[in-house]
Amino acid sequence: MRWLEVKQRGPLDGSVIIPGSKNSSLALIAAAVLGDTPTILEGIPDINDIRAIGEIGSRIGLQVSKNDDGHFVVDSSRIHSSVLDQALTSSFRASYYLIGGASQ
Questions:
Q1: Domains defined along the chain, listed by start
Q2: Full-model pTM
Q3: Is 60 exceeded by the pLDDT of residue 17?
């Protein structure tokens, strides 16, 4: 078995920023769809799955964008359809999060 031994040479000092969780972020975006005003979400990772749920949502009028502070803004005020694009949703496992919001 391989291992790595780390020996302390002095006190540690500094800070670490922990990015948001992908799975939690997807659920938060879906929950924001239920609101009637724009929702600002901080700590959302800028990854493919987040962009994918934004693309799926954009087909029904959901707006997911990034503001100047790097926070995600979810605006459901312009949702015009409850039909999700099958081609997009079939290739994205977490698209089921949008089922409840789209049928609102």
A1: 22-102 (3.65.10.10)
A2: 0.73
A3: yes
